[in-house]
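Recap quiz, item 2
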Amino acid sequence: MLNRQEYQKAVKDALSYFEKAAIVLTEEEKSKIEVADFGLNDIKQTGLQLVTYINTDRVCSKEMVLFPKQTCPEHRHPQRGGTPGKEETFRCRRGKVYLYVEGDRTENPHCRPPVGSEKYYTAWKEIELNPGEQYTLYPNTLHWFQAGEEGAVISEFSTNSEDSSDIFTDDRIKRAPEVL
Amino acid sequence: MLNRQEYQKAVKDALSYFEKAAIVLTEEEKSKIEVADFGLNDIKQTGLQLVTYINTDRVCSKEMVLFPKQTCPEHRHPQRGGTPGKEETFRCRRGKVYLYVEGDRTENPHCRPPVGSEKYYTAWKEIELNPGEQYTLYPNTLHWFQAGEEGAVISEFSTNSEDSSDIFTDDRIKRAPEVL
């Protein structure tokens, strides 16, 4: 779990990324920046900063920040009850993000998994997203993503988001937001 | 219908608005900017410029430009077959937009309908959206919106979008994209 100082630094840095991307947030949104360390307590390698604009039964939209070389770990969005799993489009707004999905393995990928977590990364089809570029993931597709050297700001457009149903390859992961 | 010159000017101006809002588009997206004049041939008063990022069966996301005092005319999104109508969240990114929805009439609203079309505007509950502010419209809610004096850039996060099912209060309107 993050301590207060780590959380506050991540929030401050994330706000700076949003500002550089000219993304305007309300004061309320700024006060609700979510910092996820996925229970691994290693946010420099594995973590995600985000603000959720809207999350209804049908539609969700978020704005996310990855710091340089920070990784959102491999997971998928399974069917929930009779509803298909989450469908999501990632659109890079600033910086660069490498997205890895199930499929043909990319030779010489740009990224390496977080040190010590290598065995939990199995999807190796690489998609490079630069500002203005996007990719749509359909339900239940294994995926993970890592920012380039300058970090990244990424918009997500999706169906309803319910983190508790996500299935991570790394069974040590607990997806609980850190808001201290 | 717009002539080529009007269409090209609207696209050029819309691209300038996106650039000022630091919204990065691919060359392909720039070449597919949609200019809607709603068949009224009066784009200065009634029109909308937009780019659609994604529109699947479940999720849609668009980026829209309204020029100063330009109006997107009153309409609603009805149920389609067994599916509820379109749900949409408008988020102001730059400038100012006044959104009018069904409900208690706002005294002294900031906007007037396009001249000559007054009778087709019946929703008068005003919501002012400045950068970072947003509003969610649930299905079948009558609504229209008009930019302030400096125009507006607005993100839309929604369920599937199918313009042909929209019901406009103004029965002269034909919602066909103008891409000349």
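Chain B is about 10% helix and 35% strand.
Chain B touches chain A through 28 residues (CB under 8 Å).
End of item.
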